[in-house]
Amino acid sequence: xxxxxxxxxxxxxxxxxxxxxxxxxxxxxxxxxxxxxxxxxxxxxxxxxxxxxxxxxxxxxxxxxxxxxxxxxxxxxxxxxxxxxxxxxxxxxxxxxxxxxxxxxxxxxxxxxxxxxxxxxxxxxxxxxxxxxxxxxxxxxxxxxxxxxxxxxxxxxxxxxxxxxxxxxxxxxxxxxxxxxxxxxxxxxxxxxxxxxxxxxxxxxxxxxxxxxxxxxxxxxxxxxxxxxxxxxxxxxxxxxxxxxxxxxxxxxxxxxxxxxxxxxxxxxxxxxxxxxxxxxxxxxxxxxxxxxxxxxxxxxxxxxxxxxxxxxxxxxxxxxxxxxxxxxxxxxxxxxxxxxxxxxxxxxxxx
Amino acid sequence: xxxxxxxxxxxxxxxxxxxxxxxxxxxxxxxxxxxxxxxxxxxxxxxxxxxxxxxxxxxxxxxxxxxxxxxxxxxxxxxxxxxxxxxxxxxxxxxxxxxxxxxxxxxxxxxxxxxxxxxxxxxxxxxxxxxxxxxxxxxxxxxxxxxxxxxxxxxxxxxxxxxxxxxxxxxxxxxxxxxxxxxxxxxxxxxxxxxxxxxxxxxxxxxxxxxxxxxxxxxxxxxxxxxxxxxxxxxxxxxxxxxxxxxxxxxxxxxxxxxxxxxxxxxxxxxxxxxxxxxxxxxxxxxxxxxxxxxxxxxxxxxxxxxxxxxxxxxxxxxxxxxxxx
Amino acid sequence: xxxxxxxxxxxxxxxxxxxxxxxxxxxxxxxxxxxxxxxxxxxxxxxxxxxxxxxxxxxxxxxxxxxxxxxxxxxxxxxxxxxxxxxxxxxxxxxxxxxxxxxxxxxxxxxxxxxxxxxxxxxxxxxxxxxxxxxxxxxxxxxxxxxxxxxxxxxxxxxxxxxxxxxxxxxxxxxxxxxxxxxxxxxxxxxxxxxxxxxxxxxxxxxxxxxxxxxxxxxxxxxxxxxxxxxxxxxxxxxxxxxxxxxxxxxxxxxxxxxxxxxxxxxxxxxxxxxxxxxxxxxxxxxxxxxxxxxxxxxxxx
Lengths: 352, 326, 302
Fold this sequence. Notes:
- The structure holds 3 protein chains of 3 kinds.
- Chain A has helices at 58-65, 92-98, 110-113, 120-129, 136-149, 155-159, 168-180, 198-215, 226-232, 250-255, 260-267, 270-275, 344-347; strands at residues 16-27, 30-42, 47-51, 73-82, 85-86, 103-106, 186-190, 218-223, 235-240, 243-249, 320-324, 327-330.
- Chain A is α/β, with parallel strands linked by helices.
- In chain A, a hairpin with a 2-residue loop joins strand 11 (320-324) and strand 12 (327-330).
- Chain A is globular, with a radius of gyration of 21 Å.
- The relative contact order of chain A is 0.13.
- Chain B has a two-stranded antiparallel sheet with strand order 1-2.
- In chain B, a hairpin with a 2-residue loop joins strand 1 (170-172) and strand 2 (175-177).
- The radius of gyration of chain B is 24 Å and the shape is globular.
- Chain C has helices at residues 3-6, 15-22, 26-43, 45-48, 90-126, 128-143, 146-157, 161-188, 191-198, 203-239, 251-262, 268-295, 297-300; strands spanning 70-71, 78-79.
- The radius of gyration of chain C is 23 Å and the shape is elongated.
- In chain C, helix 3 (26-43) packs across helix 5 and helix 5 (90-126) packs parallel to helix 12 (268-295).
- The model of chain C is unreliable at 1-12 and 298-302 (pLDDT under 50).
- Chain C is built from 13 helices and 2 strands, in the order ααααββααααααααα.
- The chains are: A alpha/beta, B mainly alpha, C mainly alpha.
- Chains A and B meet through helix 2 of A and helix 9 and helix 10 of B.
């Protein structure tokens, strides 16, 4: 695969360059590939949306980037470069020095990510002390500063709280503050707003975007929700069955999707339905079938059993095609710009 | 907090009352102690005199009321055999049992938690599997059988440690301690190990499963994502979470240790209250049996209260009734 | 309960699936084989034992305290495991003792199961005051260790096979009651029970034909564990002299009798009965542990 040159930074080394990354699981029935030949780039201050259904390998991609894949899973190959420095193959100690310092990660459920029996200050101070040779008072001052930056009122009091004394949105802000503590170069956010109320979700999205822009931090936002990506990301990667099937700028992918799967995802959103003249009470269009389990992937293009454009060729591994500058698709039959899926199966129930 | 304590104390008093009734009526059926105390050749008048002196000629409910009234003043009756107050007899023997039980609990906790942690962190390793297999054995082996084996191996065969008795003690804070006497701890070691074995297996299993569960939690993954060294992830994030149930159970199990010391004390001729109970049952010394059972119930309820308090102190999510729940 | 665990109920014809899952563990299979050998030996004791250890006419005081492998004074018998203080063949004594221990353990477990299960089923199904009362009793019972309950009862009743069975039942019924009630509460809310109720089926029929089979998996696990516990507890009590009378020496009593000889190095009188007891308990625990792994939905998902 040829990496796409970043749209802004010309030929210089991007913040993050991922190539041919693959992660596998050893299981009774042999090996299962959860992340398959994944590659993308991210510039400083840029937001990348990593989109896909649950189980498509998007979270595992995030874990692979910071070497947090638990056995029986393991990163089988590929390259992850941060500022041009190869991270794959680093000893555990070097990884530990990177995690929480240069690369931070935020998880989905704020109710579960904070340790219930430790106070907020303990959980924040330890993050500073793990990476910086500063005193406790200094670490505490940084913690306070981080809490204020993510908009937590009465931060001094909150520091002495236990997680259960805070609301879900508040806890996620604390988790974000912890991620920001050491001014990382890259933050990987694994669906951090999915478990929250819609209003809080919007607030946090906006704040994260602002904070990362200001600090020049790269942000990888993992989500199943295309509408989140639309408002937040500069670039989008769409994952299906462990592979990135389409990537490009947000405008390209959302407005001129080339992969039938992306198209299907877009058609299934309420916004797309409204644009089609969808009436209340009608079911939304859906992609027929369901995502295959990673242990039993179809041969060739994993999407072909659900794809209205599939033919015999799709039984072969699809090629990577550049459809526009910076837009890439993994498909035998990419859609021409602006086309909609014209498949009877996809339209069942959508016609009056 | 105060409300909680008051409610619990009231509950304790209720349980004690019911138990005293059950135990008193029940123990009454052990047999007729007069047969043992009075010379078989004695006349009916002699027998009646002894019965009257001991209050055994009164109806059962009168005996119980008298017993209850006395009990409230700390008098649990007088031993038929020794002629001394039953409670005094037990209290004299209690330190020996407590020393044994505390030593056993310490062995179980201090060995069990590290072993369980180790097995929980490496469940598939040889060491982890060995520890867990050993803990199954610890659960399966009857205490008395292990005691026998300990005596056979360490006393009879190797001759390293004494097979029974308490040995010399040293006075400290008004109590006699085996641990403080130069030869005393050698007498204590085998019985304490014997009594500890079952709880050791329990501590290992509890810690191991707790560790495995904690390792799957998001907060552990998040702690690792923060770049914390494994020492801190395990030593603080995992341990602090699993310590809550482990310490609570360890506290609750202390009562069982005292109950089970009957077996160990009988094997190792340890002069504690368990041995006293067995002797008293055998000799139909009713007041001592009653006093023992009431004391055990009291200790039990007291321990569960203390365990609740420890639990509340350890887990920030628990606010005892009376305060506002979070 | 998960669908997988529910599939192991007899109603769903899951016994074969259970057997297949069980056979996955070689250690558990070995445990089952050992258990079958022990039970067979216990049942066949009168026929396979070299002598009747309690027929005093067969005992020769000249043969007392012989180490394992000795021949009897008249040369007619070979004492594979030695003899006790009265010249009794230890192997025979162990086989007869095993018979008593196994019989007491299984009958106590079955009785406790029947009692606890019925109480738990009724409490879980009926709810309300009855439920509260039964569960209060369970709580009190379970807050005291089994050995203490059994000791108190035996102190009251004296020795005897029937008495020790009663003591074991009294100290174990609560486990079954709580387990059954928990399962009954979960199952009782399912649609099929509601459907049975709407069909107008009688309460006993709903309880025993519909509710009970679906509460069985956890009960099987508890019962398997409790047989081992019952045998160990009986041995302990008999060892303390509180359990069975001298006329019916179970393994615990044999061990107690041999205990005094231990100090003089005559280990066989207490060690061999101890090994027999140990094998029985370990075999039962291996079987119970495997059943728990298969039938416990919580462990299954891991």
